[in-house]
Amino acid sequence: MENHNLTHEFPELEEKINDFRLNDEGFKKLYVNYEEVNALIQHYEEGEQNHTTDDHLTDLRKKRVHLKDNLYSYLKE
């Protein structure tokens, strides 16, 4: 499965991501939410939890994209 960790998605912004995670509560909240959704998707995709539907997995992926877009906008400000 593809790695969707935020620092993998935006390696050029790794230092800024780490700084915001430690010093900005708004960013930290979005980051934690993104990581939780990403981990849940990975569990489903790897078959560790197979009690979901395709629709639910699609909704989780859409949520991950939305969170990633918000985080990227935050980082580019």
Automatic annotation (TrEMBL):
Gene3D superfamilies: 6.10.280.50. This is DUF465 domain-containing protein. InterPro entries: DUF465 (IPR007420), DUF465_sf (IPR038444). It comes from Kaistella gelatinilytica.
